[in-house]
Amino acid sequence: MAFLILGLLVFLGTHSVRIVADDWRTRTIARIGAQAWKGTFSLLSIAGFLLIVWGFSLARSEPVPLWSPPLALRHLASLLILPAFILLLAAYVPGNAIKARLHHPMVLAVKTWALAHLLANGNVADALLFGSFLLWAVFSFSAARRRDRAAGTCYAPGRMLPTAATVVAGSLAWAVFAFWLHGLLFGVQPLA
Questions:
Q1: Are residues 73 and 162 in the same domain?
Q2: How many whole angstroms separate alpha carbon 3 and alpha carbon 89?
């Protein structure tokens, strides 16, 4: 569990700098340069991610149960992942109405993904991993909305075609992941 906790601290800590110390971040980027900041950020993120993967796999080999989720919650979790995929793609498809309306769809995707996995999994490692990501996403979304208000950020209205493409592509990605890739990568078939 120690590697999982260390990975979460490094990964989410790196991704929380903008939440807790945005002014320091801005000054540091000005001092060392954007490329050096991005390089350091990337290295720390990768190291944290690898520690999370390793630590979670170690923790899954000796699970400590907290509760036993009913089957209905597993099905609900699978359905919640569908909007998570759509929200994730909305962060990257230019001109879609989802991003225009919600402003930070990637963070909302993380919230939805984490909540779904908390509903479907009842071990200590699951609660730690998905609970940490859910808490981070709540604070990250709030901080991003405050930054938008302070900067007077305006989002262009979305268009129908990019929005439809986002929904279709997100739905297809969800289907591939739910019916095939999740089992291949994690050994768990969510819709089985």
A1: yes
A2: 30
Residues 99 and 26 occupy one common structural domain: no
CA dist 98 and 67 (Å) reads 35
- Distance, in Å, from the CA atom of 75 to the CA atom of 60, rounded to the nearest integer, reads 21
Give the largest Cα separation in the chain, rounded.
53
Cβ contacts of 59 within 8 Å, gap of 6 or more: 1, 4, 123, 124, 125, 128
pTM for this structure?
0.92
Q: Are residues 77 and 164 in the same domain?
A: yes
Q: 123-170 pLDDT, tens per residue?
A: 999 999 999 999 999 999 999 999 999 999 988 899 999 999 999 999
Neighbours of 149 (CB within 10 A): 9
Query: Is 137 found in the same domain as 53?
Result: no
